[in-house]
Predict the structure.
Amino acid sequence: MAVLRPLNKHPDLSTASVLLVGAEGLPLDQLAAMILKENKSFEVNVHLAKCLPLPVENDHTRPRIDLIVFLMDMRSQHSVETVRSSLAYVDVNYFLGKVCFLAAGDKSVKHQSVDMYTLKQLADSYLSPLILAELESTERRAVIAKRLLQMLKVAAGLVPGVSALALSSLIRPSFKTEVERC
């Protein structure tokens, strides 16, 4: 059970890799296809996982992961618990602009079994952005794919003069967590 480390492999020229992590029931494959379909000036590798850790036997062939996207279904507490357990296998250096959380689901509160405060608190505790998304329609998946590609381009170091560290320093928690209130 290996911990993912952001700088343990050399980058490929004009190539970026994203890892989408999410429990069953989420349209990971559809989002991955949309990311690959978008027009971009660099090559993109998309890897899918239901949870972490990743298998050790494939480690030598796996490219460097530039961005990790944790997907959570707002209608499933299990998906949030899967993400929480997976976070233990991510090196702390990834949380310097190379991780984001994506909450997928309906905006209707009656269909949510996970409280929005819980998701926001999780993202804020790791100083990582939380993106709210509806992934049911192709158009909305395309918008999210474009946004993730922009983040991936910066996280991979393909934007001159902008680093993932600079982006993460601009992210401020929008509300105080329970720990800060005490």
